[in-house]
């Protein structure tokens, strides 16, 4: 990506209407999400630099945001990103078994991508769905009250 596509610039500009002119950095997460979607699901340094330039921000400030939030990826990922909540509520309700089942089913460990490039799996601290624990997010969809059978059904629907 040598420059931000016009469609992304227009979306960022629309978001910027919500903020004072001197607060362009407030749109950084939104801008990074848009760029990530257009860049095979991850952000490289060049993509982050383009966001920094567009929002008139220091590059390091954009890197800090991109490296902090688990919804942003700084290396290539599979077509589907599986984020398993391993925080206390999910842990108490079986997130360890969810992770174990997914590792066996997909033949990868946390932080890895399947050999066919279809799935990347990671643990995340909290997805704010404690009432539906254990839970995972695949791409932008939440899946709650997980069992092995439910996980298998969800994965089958993605194939």
Characterise this structure:
This protein is α+β, with helices and mostly antiparallel strands. It folds into 2 domains: about 5-70, Orthogonal Bundle (Arc Repressor Mutant, subunit A); about 80-159, Glutaredoxin (3-Layer(aba) Sandwich), CATH 3.40.30.10. It has 7 helices and 4 strands, in the order ααααβααβββα. Strand 3 (about 135-140) and strand 4 (about 140-145) form a beta hairpin. Helix 1 (about 5-15) runs antiparallel to helix 2, helix 2 (about 30-40) packs across helix 3 and helix 3 (about 45-55) packs across helix 4. The two termini are about 30 Å apart.
Topology:
Elements lengths: L5 H11 L11 H11 L6 H11 L3 H10 L11 E6 L2 H5 L2 H12 L12 E6 L11 E3 L2 E3 L4 H11 L1
Parallel strand pairs: 1-2
Antiparallel strand pairs: 1-3, 3-4
Helix pairs in contact: 1-2, 2-3, 3-4
Name the CATH superfamily classification of the largest domain.
Answer: Glutaredoxin
Rg on CA atoms, Å:
17 Å
**Level-1 CATH class name of the largest domain:** Alpha Beta
| Major sheet characteristics | 4 strands, mixed
Poorly predicted runs are: none
Strand content: 5-15%
Shape: elongated
Give the helix proportion (percent range): 40-55%
Question: Which strand order do you get reading across the main beta sheet?
Answer: 2-1-3-4
By CATH, the architecture of the largest domain is named 3-Layer(aba) Sandwich
Q: How many separate domains make up the residues?
A: 2
- Amino-to-carboxy terminus distance: 29 Å
Structural class estimated from helices and strands: alpha+beta
CATH topology-level fold name of the largest domain: Glutaredoxin
């Amino acid at each position: 990506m040598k420059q931000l596509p016009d469609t992304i610039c227009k979306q960022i500009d629309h978001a910027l209407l919500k903020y004072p002119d001197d607060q362009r950095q407030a749109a950084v997460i939104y801008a990074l999400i848009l760029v990530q979607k257009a860049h095979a699901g991850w952000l490289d340094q060049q993509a982050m630099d383009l966001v920094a330039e567009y929002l008139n921000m220091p590059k390091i400030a954009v890197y800090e945001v991109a490296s902090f939030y688990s919804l942003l990826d700084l290396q290539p990922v599979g077509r589907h990103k599986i984020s398993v909540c391993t925080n206390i509520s999910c842990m108490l309700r079986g997130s360890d078994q969810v992770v174990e089942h997914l590792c066996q089913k997909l033949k990868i460990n946390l932080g890895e991508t399947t050999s066919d490039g279809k799935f990347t799996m990671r643990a995340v601290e909290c997805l704010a769905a404690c009432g539906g624990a254990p839970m995972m997010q695949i791409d932008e969809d939440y899946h709650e009250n997980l069992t092995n059978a439910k996980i298998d059904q969800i994965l089958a629907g993605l194939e």
